[in-house]
Amino acid sequence: GHTIAEADRVEFNRQSDFEYERIRDFIILHYAANARSEPFWRMCRDMELPETLSAKIDLWRGNGHITREHEELFTEVGWLQVFAGQGVIPTGHHPLADAIPASDLAEFMDTIAKLNAREVAQMPSHADFIARHCAAPQPVTA
């Protein structure tokens, strides 16, 4: 039979540990950044955080910086969605953002608004979508 080299086992375990820790951090952020008042949610907000998550939160809170190490599962976009969705707001911004001329920024934001409006205009209303895709079958009458 073929045996697995010790170096392969060690490397597999190292990579697995790395990935599981990043997934753990991503999940914990959902709980730790909550604003609910019930005891369970207060306990989650007050729990001690892993050092890797504390560092990621500090970077975000400082200037909106999100780092992705190696090829970790959750991308910068995923982290942004949780930070913003949970109301974790940076206190500043990255200095490179000041290098963008105001006219370019206004044009960029206007383009996003136009693209969003175009997409929304192509979508059915909620009622139409439900009627088309989710309506219960009509009973058969004899």
Question: What labels would you give this structure?
Answer:
142 residues, mainly alpha, 6 helices, 0% strand
Quick description:
By secondary structure, the protein is an all-alpha fold. Helices cover 61% and strands 0% of the residues.
The SSE string, one letter per element, is HHHHHH
Principal-axes geometry comes out as extended
Helix/strand/pairing class, anyone? Answer: mainly alpha
Uncertain ranges: none
Assess the beta-strand content as a share of residues: under 5%
Radius of gyration: 23 Å
The average pLDDT score comes to 93
What this model shows, in words?
There is one protein chain. With 142 residues, this protein is an all-alpha fold. The protein has one domain. Helix content is 61%, strand content 0%. The chain is built from 6 helices and no strands. It starts with 5 loop residues before the first helix and ends in a 9-residue tail after the last helix.
